[in-house]
């Protein structure tokens, strides 16, 4: 159908032949479909742009020179707005200003080579990525590339040495190894992790492996030649592949290509490096999954043997039908990349471009047992789904024809065809062998299974101490097939054998309590939660503890019917140790007037280590580590100590976190020597914890658990509340007292804080969102059914900058880029409500309201200052559908009064509660907090999850607290839970009129506020 | 992102809970006091016949004199069924593509010494099962994993199989399925290839999951080396079916994946190669 046509260079006024060519641009922002960009580099290092290429005029109209600030050797143009080039001197050029109206862009920006000593030699760009190779073969990934910033922000050195790199569709990366000249594919490249994980060598595909290879290596050399005067066979820069008549006759394309006169139709240039031009030509929508996708053209390379004459490599289309032939030439020098293959025609693309090697002067391109030495790879036509396994590259040499046909016609959906087939066949098998025979008796009757062990138990009565116990879990199948289980703790009391038991279906949570001395965990039931007194057990080894925890968790999840990843409605919480727990809310949790008691909630652990989690009901979940790294939830479950069946196979990644351990150096003043480390006999330890009760010296202080390792030495911490002097000391009249940063005459003691960093490495369903460290994040809460194109997500960077994340959707929860929102002081907390109302807390403790935030204007327009409650510094804010709550430094919880649609800033702060550490207001305006102190019947707990009762549309402040899991909890988010309880008509329960249930569920329509109370401080 | 796609672990479940509907009929030569009704049972594919046929014995004993009850053995279409083969393997090998239920004759006399091993008690099955696991682990990890397990861990594997406890079994078996990530698989794949027409009981060879160039071996690679005839020839005609657990995995399936997911509880991949039905 199509064939190649020479694009006459003379007419276009080209002064010299081309050296490199690259096309793309079919996804330029807002571009009408059908246009594309073609960039070329001439031998003199000039850059040319082909004007007016679109599907009616695929050959374009004329070459326009684009001025460059140096001599360009290579250029790469992505599908979107990215165009990068390499200068002869080794710097890189980035084209700026590319857009729909200006596909050529407006100006060049020079980016220095990643390595100061070694210049860049090659660059490859995709939609959102830029990869470069320097002359020492090192590979570099450009950080921070997005449509707003084509230059990116910095280079990241990658492992591996390559001679060239190519970026294909969906930003998949291909390369040729410097050492072995094998083709590598970057594994693990996903939208969230564009830099991928590792290089994987593809098994060499020799032409003898290919059934359809239409030319053998021993064919007489002909040449396809491409724009190069140095290649001896072809002359002028012609794009025509000339096929020798000595080839196998099966290749019917040859005559067609022999002379252009034979070509019956207007011809279309076939050029690719990182593009898939044929789709453009055929004017098909490449986003429709049905489009067949060609495999990348792997061009066989010349041997890099110095003694060998230069080898010419020609690739051509395999189907030998009317496909155009295309050619590829590579000379020995790696940096003069001459030519690039072309994609085969879209109508024929289901077949793979096969590979044939022509050799000038060499009988055999490589010995029979050597693998081929590749010189060039192009993945431009290869759409690789980021999750698919590329099993089609695994076909080994000489496999039978059925294998080949499989590996030759491949689409992303088929890449794991074998797996799909197994799933399907197993399901068919079950139907065939079991469906009609369910009335048959089972051969094996179900019985009880018991797992036993020995442990230590923290005795429930005084004097409390660890006692040796036998521990057993009995599991059995209920009559309805459900799984049941009972825990037994067998102990001896007064030489009498006794036991304590708990039903698995009553266990609400299992909490690992790692310490350096004992491997303990706590088991809670609703009753034990009320008592604030869990069953505390210690296993003899850490391994044993995790074994039990994994088993018990699985058993609990089974009995509760909890399996797989958390739902989008899930409630997430984090303990002060950074462990992550999740609970599936039932609709009755927010029922009114009789909600489910929150000590009944079942929590189970998810791998990973975080300080904060935020989510919404569309399943977008972000976390922040103690080291301020941002993480996005990957959709998996398990990780950490969960293995095997309790953990998903995919979506589990390595996660690290760093936090500081603090100890205090205490000193007392005496008249002779001044401050010394000799205290009074009644004084606290001279090296202690914050309370002074525990001795903590530099030497004896260990990391929090065996999972943590020290990564720094002890340093003085000057960043302590109350301030310090220049040596880090804080002064006070006596221990314990309030400390201040400068010595007065009344001060007889002083202390200073030492910090040491430690690091944990674990696994969990979390992927890093580089590069900006965050201290807070908030995600637009919405109702479960809502369809939102873009999920608004705001964050505060570690430095206090306010950021708005672009491109966040349920499918791409990591988003694409940060938009900076100006403030005149650093911020520390932020929250966005159901009607796009954004509230934030500045570091000075005052509140701000952001005006005019909407789906169309995600960053809003200006900040309105909201005075904080009298004499209080706010520290955290949470905004639900309409309610706004804030917590101050002294643990007071405040409700913002007087919010109306026309006046969204409200009028006053109303005190709700004290002893509050954090608040989370959800999309139903439900209010949950972490309370500092909660008294139980047996004990007091600090850091307890509490739920506000009596919250109703007309009574958003609620009435009282219900106490849930704790202590030791540090964070909760209920912002995913939009499950409303089935509404009970209030009239049935009381004589009070029904609160208008028609109004309260629509979000407040917020208009641009007139500045009344709030002061516009910045616009 | 939270898709409900089938997980690889569902394969383990499907494999474990595979059942073959079976009709046990007393062989006509057996002497009974009254007529013996056939007995219908769902047999676990992954188990062994003597382990799941207590009910069958009890059913037929009711109509027989104690003196006439010898060691029970089973026969399908003239072939005595080896108890030390997993049930799923016996079915795939001899009775694939037949109508269900699987019709088996029950014998209590004329034990075919030359074809079958005696099975006086379950402890014999346990010993056979554990020795298979050890052999498999010797291939996979030089025996390191199974030797590191304690007696009770071995018991857990066996009890898991005997009592049809998937969780109990897999809580332990997963350790046998681990391997160093950098190696990409086990040392060797424990597999056995069976065919009806062969004199050899089965074929077993050393076969690595990963080729020397680092790419994973597939089922096709294995067959090419061990039983090339099973690979469809260029003429496209399929002479053989390659069956594991009643399904025909594609030849592209990585052998390591198969070993991890489609091995029987004894940790071997039991592959049946049977003539393709000529319809």
Automatic annotation (TrEMBL), chain B:
InterPro entries reported in the protein's UniProt record: Atg5 (IPR007239), ATG5_HBR (IPR048940), Atg5_HR (IPR042526), ATG5_UblA (IPR048939), Atg5_UblA_dom_sf (IPR042527), ATG5_UblB (IPR048318)
Residues in Autophagy protein ATG5 alpha-helical bundle region domain copies: 124-178
Pfam families: ATG5_HBR, ATG5_UblA, ATG5_UblB
GO CC terms, sorted: Atg12-Atg5-Atg16 complex; autophagosome; mitochondria-associated endoplasmic reticulum membrane contact site; phagophore; phagophore assembly site membrane
Residues of the Autophagy protein ATG5 UblB domain: 188-273
Topology versus the membrane: Peripheral membrane protein
Subunit details: Conjugated with ATG12. Forms a conjugate with ATG12. Part of the minor complex composed of 4 sets of ATG12-ATG5 and ATG16L1 (400 kDa); this complex interacts with ATG3 leading to disruption of ATG7 interaction and promotion of ATG8-like proteins lipidation. Forms an 800-kDa complex composed of ATG12-ATG5 and ATG16L2. The ATG12-ATG5 conjugate interacts with RAB33A; this interaction is bridged by ATG16L1 and promotes ATG12-ATG5-ATG16L1 complex recruitment to phagophores. Interacts with TECPR1; the interaction is direct and does not take place when ATG16L1 is associated with the ATG5-ATG12 conjugate.
Protein's name in the database: Autophagy protein 5
Species the sequence originates in: Scleropages formosus (Asian bonytongue)
Lineage: Eukaryota, Metazoa, Chordata, Craniata, Vertebrata
